[in-house]
Amino acid sequence: MSKYLAIFIIGTQIFLACASAQKEGAVSANLETQVRAEIKGIDQQMTDLRPEDRKYPELLLQKAKLLLKIESFKEASLVLRELQNSKDGRNLEHLDHYLGSAYLGINDYDNAIVHFRKSDNVDRDFESVTRKKMWAKAYFEDEKYGQALGILGRASKEKNFEKDLFYYETVVVSFYRIKEYKRCQLVLEEGLHKFPESLVLKETSEKINQVLQR
Asked: Do residues 91 and 122 make contact, with C-beta atoms less than 8 angstroms apart?
């Protein structure tokens, strides 16, 4: 993962970290034990059902959301793909949002981008800011900096959008990578005022100063 990003987004019972698909201890043992017990209960309920039963896809989605909650992104992606390929599951509400989240968690940025785009089209008001931040992160990690900036630009116009550390680091580094140095400097000054301890912003500031002094 890029050293420039450290994002923790809590929304829709999803806790996303800038990490690989392997959990890195961000989920407490107590939480995982609790959630695994809930998942076991869901699995037991599903043994009495057939895939064509109406409740079956709903339980699968509930299981996937719990897996996302404990950052078991690979497991979640498998469950969500099963839903996506089923007749009744593919039309479940918010499915693309959860698929995008799972793919982002396993660093499959192309698929994450596809599903966040679909979610934005059909599910625009659901976790809109959270989705756009994750969507921008997928673009950034895929080195599509212009697209990442575009998504964050749209997100920043929403009422409940917060210009957090993720926002400043992503925007600053993206502008730097596409050689928009003046715009980078403007956002950098604002970001350093709010987050003076950010190593990413400090390092980029040094690089910008060197470039602009030439």
From this structure: no
Give the SS3 label for residue 69.
helix
Are residues 96 and 112 in contact, defined by beta-carbon separation less than 8 angstroms? no
The domain spans of the chain are 9-127
Determine the pLDDT at residue 164: 95
Q: What is Dmax (Cα atoms) for the chain?
A: 71
Residue that is written with structure tokens 């009744």 in the block: 88
Residue 173, CA atoms < 13 Å, CB-side half-sphere: 25
- CA nearest 123: which of 9, 3, 12, 49? 12
3-class DSSP state for residue 157? coil
What are the structure tokens assigned to 68, written together?
A: 């996302």
Answer yes or no: is pLDDT of 110 > 50: yes
Rounded Cα distance, 161 and 173, in Å: 20
Q: Which of 117, 34, 20 is nearest to 70 (CA)?
A: 34
Place of tokens 């009422």: 159
pLDDT digits (tens, 9 = 90+) for 65-104: 999 999 999 999 999 999 988 877 777 889 999 999 999 9
Query: What mean pLDDT value characterizes the chain?
Result: 86
Tell me which of 36-45, 81-90, 176-185 is least confident: 81-90
Exposure of 117 by Cβ count < 10 A (0-12 exposed, 13-18 middle, 19+ buried)?
middle
The model's pTM is: 0.80
Cα–Cα dist 194/164, whole Å:
9
